[in-house]
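Q: what sequence does this backbone want?
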């Protein structure tokens, strides 16, 4: 039986059902549990987390009504919109049943929900329970997303080729090509989703998995836009280092492989949990890595290569060429990989979690954003914090080879390494006593205690 929490106060946390969303919400749950709250994780059936890995939490499964076919559909925006329609009444019912099973004296004092599962806010409002939104992407994306509607009305979206390099007025360092548009489904659905996602309704506050020292200007703009407290309490993975929630099986053999490599010699390559590659892109990445002659650890997610199960279609010549200095796995313990002494660079799609994890380990990056907030993150990495190299245009082996060499061997890469080590230090200060993230976390706990 779970211990009675902070004065019997229970928080219900509702994660978004994707790896990059489940992870920060479960980390937040771990942090709040350590502050004495009782925790219920209310999750969709689709991509449900492994409850046995979190014996301290109570889990409630929300029937989401998604069919097998819908779950397999790559249109993620469609899935999100449908979930929000399907889950509102089932969540309400679930919460009522869950409440019946709670210990007497236990009170739900707040529903903390991922902004993409905004049905939670509607339920909280109906049941007169306070709510708080969690944004799992950065502040800069949250600032710029709502202007997409305006830009669409002005005819700037879809972005014409002639505008790609043009700076977005009032949103430097972003260019039109960096706007956080989606690759999935229809543009109209995506914009409809944005309106719903960024309307916090009656929520009392917004939590961000970001850090004051990385995003001071966009955070200041957020304070102006929303009339509620903003809590940038990241990086959550450093506040809750033990809270892992991998939907895929991690291959720990790659750590044994890294143990045999020399200091800062390996480039780690991963495009996260959603992005896909076609056969040509796979081949150009592979030969760029091979020709760079640098050791690499490459995560290729099963199903992420269009038209093949895994690396079955990969050129045998490439496999032979890199057999002594390449390691390819299906899924890695990424945080351990980035913290490993042998890893000197990260070629990434720049998902926000990967971006934070890389900065926190002082690893400079090659930035290959695929869609959405990744483009904003990549622009900040390359042009604001200057800790990443931009890989522009179609993936091509010559460009890849040069980028890998520059990052791993040249002065430009070394300068980025120094800058990212400085950022790492600033982040450590932020989560230490008296730092910004610690301060905002205390304020958040105070607010939750007062509800
Ligand atoms: C998605 C979006 O794509 C991203 O842009 C948004 O910021 C969050 O949601 P995803 O593409 O999965 O996320 O990227 P990211 O945010 O980087 O999250 C991936 C997570 O999976 C990271 O925490 C990373 O450590 C983990 N991971 C990735 C592994 O544990 N092993 C791997 O092999 C690869």
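A:
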């Amino acid at each position: 039986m779970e211990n009675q929490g902070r004065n019997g106060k229970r928080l219900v946390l509702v994660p978004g059902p994707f790896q990059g969303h489940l992870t920060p919400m479960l980390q937040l749950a771990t942090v709040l549990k350590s502050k004495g709250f009782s925790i219920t994780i209310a999750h969709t059936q689709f991509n449900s987390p492994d409850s046995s890995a979190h014996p301290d939490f109570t889990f409630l499964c929300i029937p989401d009504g998604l069919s097998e076919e819908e779950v397999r559909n790559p249109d993620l925006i469609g899935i999100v919109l449908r979930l929000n329609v399907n889950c509102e009444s089932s969540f309400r019912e679930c919460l009522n049943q869950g409440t019946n099973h709670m210990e007497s004296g236990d009170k739900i004092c707040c529903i903390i929900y991922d902004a993409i599962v905004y049905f939670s806010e509607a339920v909280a409002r109906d049941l007169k329970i306070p709510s708080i939104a969690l944004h799992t992407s950065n502040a800069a994306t949250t600032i710029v997303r709502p202007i997409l509607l305006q830009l669409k009305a002005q005819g700037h979206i879809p972005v014409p080729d002639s505008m790609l390099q043009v700076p977005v007025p009032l949103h430097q360092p972003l260019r039109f090509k960096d706007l956080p548009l989606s690759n999935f489904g229809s543009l109209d659905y995506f914009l409809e989703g944005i309106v719903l996602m960024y309307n916090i309704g009656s929520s009392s506050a917004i939590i961000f998995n970001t850090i004051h020292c990385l995003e001071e200007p966009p955070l200041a703009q957020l304070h102006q836009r929303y009339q509620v407290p903003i809590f940038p309490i990241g990086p959550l993975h450093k506040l809750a280092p033990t809270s892992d929630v991998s939907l895929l099986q991690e291959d720990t053999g790659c750590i044994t492989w890294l143990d045999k490599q020399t200091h800062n010699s390996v480039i780690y390559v991963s495009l996260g949990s959603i992005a896909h590659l076609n056969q040509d892109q796979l081949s150009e990445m592979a030969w760029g890595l091979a020709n760079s002659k640098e050791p690499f650890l490459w995560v290729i997610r099963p199903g992420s290569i269009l038209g093949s199960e895994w690396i079955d279609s990969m050129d045998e010549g490439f496999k032979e060429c890199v057999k002594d200095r390449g390691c390819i796995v299906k899924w890695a313990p990424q945080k351990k990989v980035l913290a490993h002494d042998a890893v000197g660079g990260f070629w990434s799609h720049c998902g926000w979690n990967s971006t934070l994890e890389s900065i926190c380990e002082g690893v400079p990056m090659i930035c290959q954003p695929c869609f959405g907030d990744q483009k904003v993150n990549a622009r900040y990495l390359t042009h604001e914090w200057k800790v990443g190299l931009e890989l522009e245009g179609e993936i091509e082996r010559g460009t890849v080879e040069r980028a890998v060499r520059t990052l791993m061997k040249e002065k430009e890469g070394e300068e980025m390494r120094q800058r990212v080590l400085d950022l790492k230090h600033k982040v450590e200060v932020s989560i230490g006593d008296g730092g910004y993230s610690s301060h905002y976390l205390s304020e958040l706990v105070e607010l939750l205690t007062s509800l």
